Amino acid sequence: MSDNTIILDGKEVPFTPGETIYEIAVRQDTFIPTLCYDPRLKPFGSCRLCVVDIEGMKNPVASCTTAATPGMKVTTGNERIERFRKTLLEMVVSENRELKVSPLRSIASQELTVLVEKYDAHNGRFKGAQSGHSKLDDKNPFLLRDYDLCISCYRCVRVCAEQEGDHAISVMNRGFHTQITTEFNGFLKDSACTLCGQCVQTCPTGALGDKKALKNQALVE
To answer: Residues 123-179: pLDDT tens digits?
Structure first.
């Protein structure tokens, strides 16, 4: 075995120093689910769906934040990990009003739906208070803010800060009271938002949507 290789699901795979397990898996066309990952952003590891087993470690680790080391032996999927992922998904969707939304809301809007169907996860297994409340009274003509569908992945917050440098979107409160919002919980027109739409395009649930696309769909129907 050469120095910069790992064993990924029984196969020896080379890596570049600094690469994460998730990046290597993507390069090898090995499926690992995730909801908080966006290749444009720094690894975050909040959703925990991308966990993998590493030989010698007691607990699974987040593959998107774990850098590869020479000789590492990684298992991306087994019965325990798949059960873990299904349970996590059922916890994630336990608050959601609905799972199937129009694909016209955004490019990424079907990510959660696809994973729920793949893992046969159900949104009735866990019960609890609902975090996130829609801002449907925001009358801006471009961005729908349907936070009832928000899963607090923070991709919108991070893309606004890390990619656009606007810092128009932030997180308010904690736990079941967590809310994605703008400064002072106001409207987009009163914030630093430039209506670039990057937050919409990264949202994996359709909580943020393209109003113009949805309006055109309604006109066709």
So the answer is: 777 876 666 677 777 888 899 999 888 999 999 999 999 999 999 999 988 887 888
**What global pTM score does this model have?**
0.88
Name, in order, each residue with C-beta under 8 angstroms of 17's C-beta and a sequence gap of 6 or more: 4
- Give me the DSSP letters along 71-132: T-EEE---HHHHHHHHHHHHHHHTT-S-S---GGG-TTTTHHHHHHHHTT--TTSS--PPP-
Q: What is the pLDDT of residues 74-129, one digit of tens each?
A: 999 999 999 999 999 999 888 776 778 889 898 899 999 999 999 999 877 787 66
Query: Which residue do the tokens 């409207």 mark?
Result: 187
For the chain, domains (ranges, CATH) are 5-77 (3.10.20.740), 98-220 (3.30.70.20)
Question: Cα(92)–Cα(97) distance, rounded to whole angstroms?
Answer: 12
Residue 51: which residues within 8 A CB-CB, separation 6 or more? 60, 61, 62, 63, 81, 84, 85
